[in-house]
Write a structure and sequence with these properties.
alpha/beta; 359 residues; globular; 10 strands; 10 helices; 35% helix
């Protein structure tokens, strides 16, 4: 299986997170992607360097104003003197356009650099530094490259994206995500196969970004298996089973929330459910948002999935027999993240019938 990759991911150093007002160490670090690359290369995956693209390629799923902000946020922050006074070395929002603040009015993009940060970001955890935009561009370009490999005849391709993307919406970012790599891949693959595609998210957290982007679009079906936000988990306000799409996209979205502590049994049943749902919809292509943070021992989720669980999930998804793009999302236990991704991709190859002969 080929994998696409950009060394520019190392330009993004989040510098920690601001959680409940406190600066804490970051978990979305360059070591994540480097560990995955080492593991999949050792397992025989073929590297393909991501190719630079025009920014216009991102407009299929993101508003131009969001792209403008991400591209300029760091330089604007530094030019405004905020790195010196109050001494904040990352772009951190402090005020947000809450609907109750606006009283039904549409928010204006504020001229204040500090306030503008809260117009486009929906949390204080997802910080922007000097290399964030270039790293996010590289991740999106890796996703596009994987989609093009599959469109060109590869049964499957894996995009080793960092930073991840599945929490980014059309017009806002958060959850350690800036550009929605999986949604970008889905939009590209949809055009290539000339028919509907499914974007199935198996990260531990709800794929709220793709849901928001495609909620009224019947040409990209979205489904997510994740820890129940009603049990206190990010993204808290969204990700419930009642969310089924709207307008032309009615019934084109499926959420399967799981109780904290769920292991292989309920998790694989949920993966099988969304796979069967996609198969029944007659989709012609598949994008898998692969987070491995549902694994037992991962610091960012309460799920208990094993490596064999990931292997079986890959097999279930591969058995759909569709042209498949896999896009990396979460996974924060650097000691095992590579082996978990290898397990999922090996399972996918077995499901597709493209696994190499072990003899």
């Amino acid at each position: 299986m080929p994998f696409t990759w950009s060394d520019r991911h190392r330009l993004h150093d989040p510098g920690g997170e601001v959680w409940v007002g406190v600066r804490t160490p970051g978990t979305e670090l360059p070591a994540r992607a480097d560990a995955i690359r080492d593991a999949i290369a050792a397992a025989g995956a073929r590297p393909v360097e991501a190719v630079a693209r025009e920014r216009e390629a991102l407009l299929a799923v993101h508003d131009r104003e969001l792209l403008d902000h991400l591209e300029s946020a760091w330089e604007s922050w530094r030019a405004a003197g905020l790195t010196d006074d109050p001494g904040q070395d990352r772009v951190v929002p402090y005020v947000f356009p809450h609907p109750a603040l606006l009283g039904g009015l549409d928010p204006a993009i504020p001229p204040s650099t500090a306030a503008r940060a809260g117009y486009f970001a929906y949390d204080t955890m997802t910080l922007i530094g000097p290399g964030t935009w270039e790293a996010a561009r590289g991740a999106a370009e890796a996703a596009l490259g994987a989609a093009e490999l599959v469109a060109g005849g590869e049964p499957a391709a894996y995009a080793l994206c960092r930073p991840p993307g599945h929490h980014a919406t059309r017009s806002a970012f958060g959850g350690s995500c800036y550009l929605n790599n999986a949604a970008i891949a889905a939009a590209s693959l949809r055009e290539a196969v000339e028919g509907p595609v499914a974007l199935l998210d198996v990260d531990a957290h709800h794929g709220n970004g793709a849901q928001a982007i495609f909620y009224e679009d019947p040409a990209v079906l979205t489904a997510s298996v994740h820890v129940d936000p009603g049990a206190g988990w990010f993204p808290h306000f969204i990700g419930f089973s009642s969310e089924r799409g709207a307008g032309p996209g009615q019934d084109a979205n499926l959420n399967v929330p799981l109780e904290p502590g769920s292991g292989d049994g309920p998790w694989l049943a949920a993966v099988g459910e969304i796979a069967g749902w996609a198969a029944g919809a007659g989709v012609r292509g598949l994008v898998v948002a692969l987070g491995v943070d549902a694994a037992a021992g991962d610091p960012e989720s309460p799920l208990e999935v094993s490596a064999e669980g990931y292997r079986e999930a890959g097999r279930l998804l591969g058995a759909l027999g569709l042209p498949t793009v896999v896009v990396q999302e979460g996974g924060y236990d650097v000691g095992v993240i590579g082996s978990l991704v290898v397990a999922a991709l090996e399972g996918l190859e077995r499901g597709l019938g493209t696994a190499p002969d072990p003899g």
